[in-house]
Amino acid sequence: MPDVNNMFPSKWLKVGDLKGGQIDAVISHIVQEEIKQGEMLWVMHFHPNPQLPTAMDGTQPGAVLKTQNADAISTIYGPNTEAWSGQTVQLYVKNTNMGPGIGIRPSVAAFQQAHREEMNARKAEYRARKRGCTTGEMVRIKRFYKNVREADRIQCYYCGRNVKKSERHIDHIMPLGKGGPHVVHNLCCACRQCNQSKGGKTVEEWNGQGLMFVPDAVVEAGSVFA
């Protein structure tokens, strides 16, 4: 026998449809629909999803789009709703003054991608705090991470080789394990080979003689990236 929810389906997604969990869904399209007599609201529809309830005719409910949901999505996917088609969002139960409701936000992966620099900077700050190191300058550090990732040309702080974007690592010149601070002037861009080879050593411990290359203005944390 069919599930009662499939026998008497709602045209729009209900809190109970999420079963208290979260569902990742791919946006198909957004259209205005009459929710109540004379009340037109925007509804987000999704590509077929096995986690969403399916009516006996094969249709699945859409989610009524609220202002807060739309604002959250637009911060990651942009204001043009046509460009949202094919993007992944997360449906979740959200507590409101009116009781539980359905929240819609960009997928975790999309959020992490859009806020990569901030997340990397905060992870590094967390590691530094655990070691009892000096921390600070979060705004400047996030800008440093962003500039390293986006710069057209950048050299390894240690060997001077031009580093392509896929091989750029951010390293603490004086390692956190040696008491180095997590501040922008102790950060540099290193190539993968140098960063992995140096590890948690000081430059002197690593190569026995200190910095062999004089970095130019492109990599100086205190100039271009400060």
> Taking strands numbered 1, 2, ... along the chain, how are they ordered across the largest sheet?
3-2-1-4-5
Q: What share of the residues does DSSP label as strand, in percent?
A: 15-25%
Number of helices: 7
Global geometry:
elongated
Mean pLDDT: 81
Number of strands: 7
How are the SSEs placed, and which strands pair?
Elements: H1 4-7, E1 22-36, E2 39-46, E3 63-64, H2 67-77, E4 88-96, E5 99-106, H3 108-114, H4 116-130, H5 138-150, E6 168-172, E7 187-191, H6 192-198, H7 203-207
Antiparallel strand pairs: 1-2, 1-4, 2-3, 4-5, 6-7
In short, what is this structure?
This protein has 226 residues and is an alpha+beta fold. 27% of the residues lie in helices and 23% in strands.
How is this structure best described in words?
- With 226 residues, this protein is α+β, with helices and mostly antiparallel strands.
- The protein has 2 domains: 109 residues, no CATH class; 93 residues, DNA Binding (I), subunit A.
- The strands form 2 sheets. The protein has a 5-stranded antiparallel β-sheet. The chain has a two-stranded antiparallel ribbon with strand order 6-7.
- Strand 4 and strand 5 form a beta hairpin.
- Helix 4 packs across helix 5.
- The radius of gyration is 25 Å and the shape is elongated.
Please tag this protein with its features.
alpha+beta; DNA Binding (I), subunit A; 2 domains; two-stranded antiparallel sheet; 7 helices; 23% strand; disordered C terminus
